[in-house]
Design a protein that fits this description.
The complex is a heterotrimer of chains A (264), B (302) and C (354). Chain A contains 11 helices and no strands. Chain A is mainly alpha-helical and 264 residues long. The longest helix of chain A has 34 residues. With 302 residues, chain B is an all-alpha fold. In chain B, helix 5 packs across helix 11, helix 9 packs across helix 11 and helix 11 packs antiparallel against helix 14. The longest helix of chain B is centred in the first third of the chain and has 34 residues. Chain C has 354 residues and is of the alpha+beta class. Chain C has 2 domains: 230 residues, Rossmann fold (3-Layer(aba) Sandwich); 114 residues, OB fold (Dihydrolipoamide Acetyltransferase, E2P). Chain C contains 8 helices and 20 strands. In chain C, the strands form 4 sheets. In chain C, strands 6-7-8-3-9-10 form a 6-stranded mixed β-sheet, sandwiched between helices. A 5-stranded antiparallel β-sheet of chain C has the order 13-12-11-14-20, with no helix packed on it. Chain C is elongated and about 75 Å long. Classes of the chains: A mainly alpha (264), B mainly alpha (302), C alpha+beta (354). At the A-B interface, helix 1, helix 3, helix 4, helix 5 and helix 6 of A face helix 1, helix 3, helix 5, helix 6 and helix 7 of B. Bound molecules: adenosine-5'-triphosphate and magnesium ion (MG). The site of adenosine-5'-triphosphate has 11 residues of chain C, from helix 1.
Amino acid sequence: MKQGSRFWAWLVFGVGTTYFILPLLATFEFSLRKRRGEYSFDAYRSVFEDPNFQTTFTYSVVVAIFTILLGVLLVVPTAYWIRLRLPNLRPVVEFITLLPLVIPAIVIVFGYIRMFGSNSTLPFLATARGTDVLLVIGYAVLALPYMYRAVDTGLRTIDVRTLTEAAQILGAGWTTIIARIILPNVLIAVLSGAFLSFAIVIGEFTMASLLNRPAFGPYLQNIGANSAYEPSALAIISFAITWGCMSLIQILSRFAPKSANRPN
Amino acid sequence: MADSTMPQTASVSPRAPEISRLRLPLHWLGVAPFFVFALLFLILPTVGLIAGAFKNAAGDYTFENIIALSQPKLAAAYLVSIQISVVSAVLGALIGLAMAVAVVRGGLPSWLRSATLTFSGVASNFAGVPLAFSFIATLGRLGVATILLRDIFGINIYSLGFSIFSFWGLVLTYLYFQIPLMIVIITPAVDGLKKEWGEAAATLGATNWQYWRMVVIPVLWPSFLGTTVLLFANAFGAVATAYALTGPSLNIVPIQLFAQIRGDVLYNPNLGYALALGMIVITGLANLFYILFQRRAERWLK
Amino acid sequence: MADPFLSIQHVRKSFGATTVVEDFSLDVEPGEFVSFLGPSGCGKTTVLRMVAGFEEPSAGKIVVAGKDITRLKPNQRNVGMVFQAYALFPNLTVAQNIAFGLKVAGMPKADADRRVAEMLDIIKLPQMGDRYPYQLSGGQQQRIALARAIAPKPKLLLLDEPLSALDAKVRVSLREEIRSIQKKLGITTIFVTHDQEEALSISDRIAVMYGGKAEQVGTPFEIYNRPATKFVANFVGTLNVLEGTVTDAASGMVRVNSQEVALKGKLNGSKSGDTLSLALRPEAISLGRQPGRDSSLAGEISEVHFLGSVIRVRVGIGGSTVSLDTFNSPATPPPAVGEKAEISFASSDMLVLH
Ligand SMILES: Nc1ncnc2c1ncn2[C@@H]1O[C@H](COP(=O)(O)OP(=O)(O)OP(=O)(O)O)[C@@H](O)[C@H]1O
Ligand SMILES: [Mg+2]
């Protein structure tokens, strides 16, 4: 009986693994075939030397960084305040943070285009810089569920209330409390949320494309339409970036404070 | 949750009581930025779209746009979208569950479990354009697997009717993020299956299959259903993968909407809003069911 | 004597290189209630799981009612099992949980319903049939688990620390309930526990286990009063241990703190000059001379604890301290710390620990 179930487990696992590994291997192999008759990293070289790659990738990294900053500024004080002062509001806030999972990104950006046009009261789309800002905002919305959950979990493990009261007794002001006490303690959670945001944002296509921004996602799509081997190289690079972000989160989670004052 | 059970510790600040009356609005100031942000950049844009779906070009309220969604091309788009999402969600859920059970309960070495979970975390976020590239490189007309199958096994999948740009090609590609997402979400539920349940069932004379039929499947069922509808919503809203794989030609809702936003291909902006509303309704319902099922599942797995 | 109902014969179990159970043998009479008592990790659960069929013995065999079941699958053994963590099926109601074994055995629904009602009566939860496990307290859940285990009328009932997860009050009342149900149904039962009071109070016999072996098997009376090994003596009950030196092996004279005590016939094999550990239960000692207590030692009272009906007194004798209990009597004042005192005991109650 045990023998049998283990056989099935291995079989399922083997088939699944094949499905997941094969495309990666195939893509990698394909990306090495640019030079006729031998394997080479020519496709990667041509990608990295492409000025469009450099500008779009840089653009997306900058947008990602601003997204993360906006996300942190928005989420950390809110999650903290909800834990400390307004626990009744928690369901509302949680519901709102989950909305971006319910409303597809394409619908959100459609709403932006409709609402923030050049002759609206908030004409983000009138200028390129304004559109950049709107893209950052849109990405912060996309990342909101992940950011909020990461930070809230982080806060839960450190017993915000006790720490805060301790700080108040010692005469600390609010900015000091957040900057010196809360942030360092949730830093790991914030970083996890940040890396996840980065992974989501760096190759995002829909919003960037519909807002006409020169981001990495639209660049990828464009390359896919126009060349043979570079897309594979880019897929491998993208996978490596996602993998890197996730591994960093894993590594961080090992440093996270495990012991909560209360179980939960 | 823990907070509600926590004793309401008296405020430490020894300030005069009248200040505490001023507290109430101050309380709210702490969360004001968040609510303003959510209102401006999440709720109002969406509500605006929804309202637009019920207006005509002149701004009068109407159901025309909703009714117009039934025109053949759009109805077909919804149908194909739903089909792709259902098939990829159900297959993804079944295969994901099988893998989760294999890894958690199948007696495999424990490092495989953490490796699988880590990989699933990566793969469930590896959607979009690069994923499409990978599958074209693998199963495209000149893809590595296509050539291998043809040259070594003599199977020409393209002459058998397969194409990576077809319905099943899209499903196969979507599974690459659907299965891992299922694994990530369902693993805690599978972990919740206690070993003692199986042993209790065995001592009571049940066969393995009876145990699965009477206990395991019913216990996992709410989580399974809930996650399946979540996968459905996940596939339904996916634009980039489909767009990069098939271009604007595939008639599914997100791609129709994409084309509409780009260039008003429907020649009626309000019809575009109705198209978006349809997406919100479908993914909204899916998430509602997810929450309901999840709640039921948690009750048992406490 | 009747043939044993359950016979565990020279069973051994190894996980890889470590041997967890070694040469374990035990015969259990029909209807008997036997407890496995021992410290954590001594292999109690492992033996039980071999009887249930979840582990295969590395050697030896297990016979039930004359039939070798060593290689039988768990679902063909017809044993009932109760787990520490209740292990009720969360998706089934109480009644459905109890009916589970009946259903898989193909019992007609009407019969099964009747049996379930009967079971609910036995465990005194007749109104609970429609509840779900998460709506019950731990004690109630464990009673349901017991009902579920005995509903299909198993030949053997195995309980693995069924009371450990419950609070002290429930633990006492439920153990008595388990015992009375077991007696009423006459079901042969093995009960695993690491709580000696539990084992002593409800068992017909106790197997004290240590390091994968049965150190001693006997009635609670024997285990407590005549521990066969030092481990059993220390593990079960409270002991006062005194160091003694054999002065005259032939006549059984031992010197404790420069006072002579006669231990006739207890020194088997010790030579003069050997050092011995001598042990006394608190209740075998009295303060002052008492009829029937032939030996005595002098010391000084070092502590007095008034516990209500009982006064616990500690008496220093040389380097060691001896605890004993005396009943409180309103007429006489309790002993005071620092007083000289003499303790007396029957030399036959003195245990010599080897
Ligand atoms: N599957 C297994 N693989 C390896 N070692 C095991 C396994 N099961 C039990 N052991 C080891 O066997 C020893 C005895 O375990 P067992 O569970 O029988 O102890 P126990 O007497 O029931 O203890 P407790 O009172 O803590 O339940 C322990 O040291 C345990 O680590
Ligand atoms: Mg045990």
